Amino acid sequence: MLVRTAVFLCLVALAVPATHAFHEGGVGSCQGCHIMHESEDGMIPGTGSTGQYLLTASNGSEVCLGCHATADGAVLGADALAPPPERGGGNFVFLLEDNLNDAPTGALNPIGGHTAGHNLVAPGFGLASDPDHPMAPGGSYASSDLGCTSCHDPHGNGNYRLLYGQGQQTATGVPFATPAPQAAGIDLNGPPEAVGNHTAYNSGWSAWCGNCHGAYHENPGNGDFEHPVSDPIGPEQAGDYNAYLGTTNPTGGDMVSAYLPQTALEDPAATTASTVGAGGGTRLSCMSCHRAHATSAPSSLRWDSAVVQLADDGQESGSYALPNPYPGPDQRSLCEKCHWTRTQQGHGSVDRKPCLDCHAKSSGPGSPPLDQPDLGTTSWGSPR
């Protein structure tokens, strides 16, 4: 009886691949994404469309979303006003919003959800390529080719979240010139992101994003908002970051408990349970202000830069209000997490305008000249 039970359990183990092995050549993983043969009329059984690479859906992103849209990370969900729990990367459901503009007059000047982040091409899920940018901002990656497998290796590798590394290339032949970033992530089916449970960004993030976007915020030729995203955090900003506990208590914190996932830092010593703020090895990166997928704010920002107070988020647009990490309705922009001291020195009580209304390089393409009335767009080159 014991032998028979052991044999039965072994057969079950072989028949049902472990989730963690699915992208690593685990038993049975091929047929999770591929079919053996196309039917005679060239249509994939059950999909009504012709696919690539004998996929089970019309393209790679639709295959990925077949498992990951509402489970195993829930990167899409079903309702932009009730998104799945945040686990670090952001959520593509916000691409389906009709308006993200929470600036004054935002209801009359809608900004489509396509500005929320990376526009996956997955028609079966209502997702199409970016109508505003035919190429990746700052680079030359074609938006019409953008999908899950533009960043993630569907067949598996040893990198964080299966991200491509140096020497690899996407299915469309775009090479990666820099190594995959180093990080550790939280369980995709576990508790949501929180202080003490968050992605640990260890190194290499800005350089890796630069595979497609170049040194976007550091390149004077890009014509948009400039900000260092690959430098060690300076002592003034580190002091602000560690002391800041919100608008009502900007000096009450300490380095030991200062870390905030909404203003993520890159540090080789970081772990998913870290609460330590800015130290000697801390750097800024693209991920300090942006999430990788999409958010309920333009440009995949971790907070909405168009609002004066975080309580204003969602009011004009009717979109999902990104959670305020600090108590009280008067919390201002999270730019202050790093810049509170300078903000106070330069402006006193800064509750009049969003930070980026003034801290801009130029008006940028598509925006009114800086001396013209603001009708719902920022002065830094992007609709509000």
Overview of this structure, please?
- This protein is mostly loops and 384 residues long.
- The protein has six helices and two strands.
- The N terminus and C terminus are likely disordered.
Radius of gyration: 22 Å
Helix content: 10-25%
| Total number of helices | 6
- Mean pLDDT metric: 83
Give unreliable regions as ranges: 1-19, 362-384
Helix-strand string: HHHEEHHH
Spatial strand sequence of the major β-sheet = 1-2
Helix/strand-derived category reads little secondary structure
% residues in beta strands: under 5%
**What is the 3D form?**
globular
Assembly context of the chains: single chain
Number of strands: 2
> Separation of termini?
69 Å
Largest sheet: 2 strands, antiparallel
Key terms for this structure?
15% helix, single chain, 6 helices, two-stranded antiparallel ribbon, 384 residues
Give a brief rundown of this model.
This protein is low in regular secondary structure.
Note the topology.
Layout: H1 2-15, H2 30-33, H3 60-68, E1 182-184, E2 200-203, H4 205-213, H5 235-243, H6 336-347
Antiparallel strand pairs: 1-2
Helix pairs in contact: 5-6
